[in-house]
Write a structure and sequence with these properties.
- The chain is mostly beta strands.
- An 8-stranded antiparallel beta sheet has the order 3-4-7-1-10-11-12-13, with no helix packed on it.
- Strand 12 and strand 13 form a beta hairpin.
């Protein structure tokens, strides 16, 4: 069984993901950090020290990041990281800066994904996405059938949003 970690962006949305910091200090708990500051190429370098580099599939580099550069996703693009034991965590905090290319709210379209690592047959992993049914950014933990939802329910075109969530009992 192969498990993939993917920054997944669903049809008709363009998101820009951008770095929020220049330097990081890893105390050992950081397992993946993309700054998206490479500017060219098809590899997003993991700055955590765990070598969880991601392959960029379709996303394009842009100068229009929240801080510096970013990747622009058109709805079908991904950054995929090969499965690695460092990604098998029992708790996590996941965050991203997103900038929708159009207004989005409850009842509109699909559930655009932001970040996930899922093993569906074993109900393991985590998924951070914009949830159509509630209009929220949601972290879903399948093991416990738990949803952590944001207060924000209307996402405006061209506005940067910081999306962050924490979860436990993931694997």
């Amino acid at each position: 069984m192969r498990s993939l970690l993917s920054a997944l962006f669903v049809v008709s949305f363009v998101f820009l993901l951008s770095s929020i910091g220049q330097a990081i200090k890893n105390d050992g708990s950081l397992v993946l950090y993309f700054s998206f500051d490479e500017r060219t190429g098809d590899i997003a370098r993991d700055k955590s020290g765990n070598n969880n580099d991601g392959t960029i599939n379709g996303a394009e580099w842009t100068e229009d990041g929240k801080i510096g550069k970013a990747l622009s996703f058109d709805g079908n693009d991904t950054v995929t990281v090969k499965d690695n034991n460092t990604l098998d965590v029992t708790s996590l905090t996941v965050e991203a800066w997103i900038k929708p290319s159009k207004d989005w709210q409850q009842g509109i379209g699909t559930n655009p994904g932001i970040f996930h690592k899922l093993d569906y047959p074993n109900r393991a992993g985590y998924l951070l996405y914009l949830e159509n049914g509630f209009g929220t950014a949601s972290l879903y933990i399948p093991q416990t059938d738990t949803y952590v939802r944001s207060i924000t329910k209307v996402w405006k075109k061209g506005i940067w949003y910081h999306v962050a969530s924490t979860g436990e009992k993931l694997m």
